[in-house]
Amino acid sequence: MFKPLVSTLLLFLVIIAYGQVEEGNPPEGMVLIPGGTFMMGSDHGQAIAAPKHPVTLHGFYMDVREVTNKEYQEYCLATGYKHPEFWGLGLYKSGPDYPDHPVVGVSQFDATQYAEWAGKRLPTEAEWEYAARAGLEDISYPYGENEDHTRSRFNDPEVEKGPVKTGSYPPNGYGLFDMSGNAWEWVSDWFSESYYSESPEQNPAGTSMGTFRVFRGGGWHSGAGCTTVHRRNGLPPHWVDIAGGFRCVKELSKQ
Q: pLDDT at residue 210 above 50?
């Protein structure tokens, strides 16, 4: 007679345990993104961003800001790795004269190498969108439904060419800066137009192979529509761009 009660209690404890995350302070420059379930994608836009579907993720840490020129230079000096495209030319705020601007001109391979050196990794596409939404479902931008130049750096003829310093605009609900605009960000997934129709619900990580890698968030020269939280794009992993950057994540168990 007690079996239903015991089963219910066990289920309740499992739900609580799944929602919990490890205690302790996040690594420097990162913030805790708690695990949870959200509706990924959009049924009102790109066909490749549909269908809107539920995704459940474990918690993780994410860089509060996009990786900066200063941080990437430290990596290059420590490892002998090549500096990114456009470095030190004064173009697009790239190089040591702009330490607090997001590094651009890096390929997905470059970003992956940096993340491994830093003891981190690139986010999955699902982790990136979940973090960008910060618990808000019916939005197009991390800050709300409508585009706003006071909240994000995207194509604006009134602003000097190039990105701005990371953190120049207000953060989203998770305390993350520049999840829309400034530098678009590489993620770890291979790109597939049909993936949303076949994606697993638990911690999806993309297809096992492909031709393009996914990037998210749009950049300083992107139109507003390219900077939405659900916009998907893909490019060859060796591609470099004047607005192409990244940020990293870290597993909770690997502090």
A: yes
| pTM for the structure as a whole | 0.89
Mean predicted confidence (pLDDT) in 184-204: 97
The token duo for 240 is 């470099």
Q: Which domains are assigned to the chain? A: 3-251 (3.90.1580.10)
What's the pLDDT tens digit per position in 85-98? Answer: 999 988 899 999 99
